[in-house]
């Protein structure tokens, strides 16, 4: 158990809808990262927040957004969902702005 | 230039064997190279990591070998066990953005 928690574990929704995925980092970690894992694209970095501020951006679609709150938990918002957004979404956390990243158990999103 | 190439795609070894998974990168700005282990339905778990100023690092049965001039690094699993059967990902990082390899599915048979 990495100490990173993610909710919900599974999410099934329809195309065009909007969902919110939640992540609580390990105690003391200031960085939160979001990744998408799909069969065709593998593990892709989406975005990083460090102590409430956006720090790095990867292959994140404009329909996706994230934020990190003062208590350091983070939410990933996915809107106008498409079939291709079906994937596992992982949150990771780390103490520093770079270095070790510890992954949560993931949220499996299915868009029908 | 951001790619990390990982091979083989899958690997079957007998218990006690030493599976070796290789990764290669192009971007010389990468400065941190972790390996992750992932079981079905679980998140990737950090196994071991190395920085480019070191050529080898051992933690338990896991060893990373790093060749900076060749821009290659590899994971060796000593005395492999059936419980090591999982997917292994190499990764490389610069400024905290991890770029992952495509994964190697390892099966350790009895």
Give a written overview of the molecule.
The complex is a heterodimer of chains A (112) and B (110). By secondary structure, chain A is mostly beta strands. Chain A is built from no helices and eleven strands. In chain A, strand 7 and strand 8 form a beta hairpin. Chain B is globular, with a radius of gyration of 13 Å. The model of chain B has no long low-confidence stretch (mean pLDDT 94). The relative contact order of chain B is 0.34. At the A-B interface, strand 4, strand 5, strand 9 and strand 10 of A face strand 5 and strand 10 of B.
What is the largest interface, and how many residues per chain? A-B, 26 and 20 residues
Secondary structure category of chain A = mainly beta
Helix content of chain B: under 10%
Overall shape of chain A: it is globular
Number of strands of chain B: 11
Strand content of chain B: over 45%
Mean pLDDT of chain B: 94
What is the count of DSSP helices of chain B, taking H or I runs of 4+ residues? 0
Which structural class do the helices and strands of chain B define?
A: mainly beta
Query: What is the alpha-carbon Rg of chain B in Å?
Result: 13 Å
Topology diagram in text:
The complex is a heterodimer of chains A (112) and B (110).
Chain A: E1 5-7, E2 10-13, E3 19-24, E4 31-38, E5 42-50, E6 53-57, E7 64-68, E8 74-78, E9 87-94, E10 102-103, E11 107-111
Chain B: E1 4-7, E2 10-14, E3 20-25, E4 33-38, E5 45-50, E6 56-59, E7 62-67, E8 72-77, E9 86-94, E10 97-100, E11 104-109
Parallel strand pairs in B: 2-11
Antiparallel strand pairs in B: 1-3, 3-8, 4-5, 4-9, 6-7, 7-8, 9-10, 9-11
Q: Can you give keywords for this protein?
A:
heterodimer, A: 112 residues, mainly beta, 7-stranded mixed beta sheet, 11 strands, B: 110 residues, 5-stranded antiparallel beta sheet
């Amino acid at each position: 158990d990495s100490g990173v928690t993610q909710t919900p574990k599974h999410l099934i929704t329809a195309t065009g809808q909007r969902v919110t995925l939640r992540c609580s980092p390990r105690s003391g970690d200031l960085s939160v990262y979001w990744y998408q894992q799909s069969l065709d694209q593998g593990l892709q970095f989406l975005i990083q927040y460090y102590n409430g501020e956006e720090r790095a951006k990867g292959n994140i679609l404009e329909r996706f957004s994230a934020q990190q709150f003062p208590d350091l938990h983070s939410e990933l918002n996915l809107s106008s969902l498409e079939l291709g957004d079906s994937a596992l979404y992982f949150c990771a956390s780390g103490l520093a702005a770079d270095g070790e990243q510890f992954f949560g158990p993931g949220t499996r999103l299915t868009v029908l | 230039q951001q790619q990390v190439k990982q091979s083989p795609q899958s690997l079957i070894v007998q218990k006690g064997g030493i599976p070796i998974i290789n990764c290669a990168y192009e971007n010389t700005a990468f400065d941190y190279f972790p390996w992750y282990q992932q079981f079905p339905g679980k998140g990737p778990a950090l196994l071991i990591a190395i920085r480019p100023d070191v050529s080898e690092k051992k933690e338990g049965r896991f060893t990373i070998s790093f060749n900076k001039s060749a821009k290659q690094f590899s994971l060796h699993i000593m005395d492999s066990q059936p419980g090591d059967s999982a997917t292994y990902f190499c990764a490389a990082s610069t400024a905290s953005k991890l770029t992952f390899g495509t994964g190697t599915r390892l099966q350790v048979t009895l």
